[in-house]
Amino acid sequence: MKTIFIMEDHPIVSESLTSFFNDTGRWNVLGTSSSLGEAKEKIPHLENIDVLLMDILLPDGWGLDIIPWLKNQSNKIPLLAVFTAFDDYSYVSTAVSLGVMVYLTKLRKKEKLENAINNAFDGIICIDEDAQRKINKITSLTDMLTNRESEILINVKKGLTNEEIAENLGINPRTVANIISCILDKTGIKNRRTLEKI
Question: How far apart are alpha carbons 67 and 13 in whole angstroms?
Fold first, then answer.
């Protein structure tokens, strides 16, 4: 029987997930938390957590912030899964970069969540279809960028300022700002912070 810990701040959702996993007879819910702080208090006292299931937004922070903390606590990291209302590209890309294997929205049935988690144990990453469509759209749009726009994008992803990018490429900072605006328009991305995570 596999074990799971649930980070979810909505009581009804938390109770529903707990009941579902326990009632399958295939899982043992070791505990739940409604905040990052509570999770950090409880997790060190638990052994052999196979899966950490988390929401993205918690009252005291970002659910994904638990991952770096976990890595500092132990060499053994549970399988990481996200069950959330958010399907934005920035959330998904950050989650996957941190090692999340399952990313589903709360529009999906709990049976699909369990199936995705089981597949993840075999190394299969599962991304919600709505989120995947957004990722595909962004990927196809970035292919439409000009060489100069691509150069600017590469520098933006490095976290450089407009002035630093301008110095690197030998152009005016105002030109950099204009090109970034064009990139945002083409890709449909709303802000620079999200652009940095593509």
Answer: 22
- Helix orientation angle between 11-24 and 110-120, rounded to the nearest 10 degrees: 60
Please give the full DSSP string across 49-61, using - where no structure is assigned.
--EEEE-SEETTE
State the pLDDT confidence band at 195, using cuts at 50, 70 and 90. Answer: confident
Question: 103: exposed, middle or buried (C-beta count within 10 Å: 0-12, 13-18, 19+)?
Answer: buried
Tell me the percentage of the chain whose pLDDT exceeds 90.
60
Fold of 2-134: Rossmann fold (3.40.50)
Question: Taking a C-beta distance cutoff of 8 angstroms, is the pair 13, 57 a contact?
Answer: no
Write out pLDDT tens, residues 140-168. 666 678 888 888 988 998 889 999 999 98
Q: Look at the domain 144-195 and name its fold.
A: Arc Repressor Mutant, subunit A (1.10.10)
So what's the pLDDT on residue 150?
Answer: 85
Same CATH topology for 2-134 and 144-195: the answer is no
Domain boundaries, the chain: 2-134, 144-195
Whole-structure pTM value:
0.71
